[in-house]
Specification:
Elements: E1 4-8, H1 17-23, E2 33-37, H2 40-50, E3 55-58, H3 70-83, E4 90-93, H4 98-116, H5 121-135, H6 149-177, H7 182-187, H8 191-207
Helix pairs in contact: 3-4, 5-6, 5-8, 6-8
């Protein structure tokens, strides 16, 4: 079956043997296709016109410093896949910019991990809330007293929200520690955890009758 390789790079020619050997060892000259796009707009135009390729290769620095980067292309790709409920194609980053490379891999791995979650955000939110609830002692009454079941459940919701927020901060710190810049790490906090936090907030509002 024909494979399509989408190569985003303003300088490196993907048809040169050195790049094929390093990044596309399974490339078949007379069966597969290499598409060379040199900037963000060409990247977006190719995918919106032709759909996702089998593999994508990212450079980070694309021309002048004010030009959109490979990271911008990666962000667009994640949004495209989220909007269309698609898995990411295989990807590689050939950029010599270590920070840029980390940023691209960070946001793409983030989305990949989100798609691979087997438990829905709603299920995970309820699981965390209930784990706190069943470990908080109550007085046995539904609504009466300081330690009623209702008051304890509200406390469990608050504990769950704080816990997930802390997990998101830890996740951002972990991204920063592997070379993802702080601003990008904040932007790319786990979308799965963000969705869980939103579900916890929905439970809180519903419990409070809002």
């Amino acid at each position: 079956m024909k494979r399509t390789y989408l190569w985003l790079d303003d300088v490196r020619n993907p048809n040169q043997y050195v790049w094929i050997a390093e990044y596309m060892p399974e490339y078949r000259k007379f069966e597969d296709e290499i598409v060379w796009v040199k900037d963000y707009l060409e990247f977006v135009n190719y995918i919106t016109t032709n759909g996702l390729p089998d593999e994508i290769f990212f450079d980070h620095d694309l021309g002048d410093s004010e030009e959109a980067t490979g990271y911008d292309a990666a962000k667009w790709l994640v949004n495209y896949c989220m909007d269309n409920d698609l898995d990411l194609p295989e990807w590689h980053v050939q950029s010599a910019n270590p920070v840029g490379k980390g940023n691209i891999n960070g946001i793409l791995n983030n989305y990949k991990n989100f798609k691979e979650q087997k438990e829905s955000p709603k299920e995970k939110a309820l699981e965390i809330i209930h784990e706190f609830y069943y470990n908080l002692p109550n007085n046995g009454f539904l609504t009466e007293g300081v330690n009623s079941c209702e008051s304890r459940y509200k406390e469990a919701i608050q504990c769950a929200s704080i816990t997930v927020r802390h997990m998101m901060d830890v996740y951002a710190s972990a991204l920063h520690s592997i070379g993802v810049d702080k601003e990008t790490a904040e932007i790319t906090k786990s979308p799965y955890l963000s969705a869980v936090k939103e579900e916890i907030e929905k439970v809180r509002l519903k419990r409070n009758g809002k």
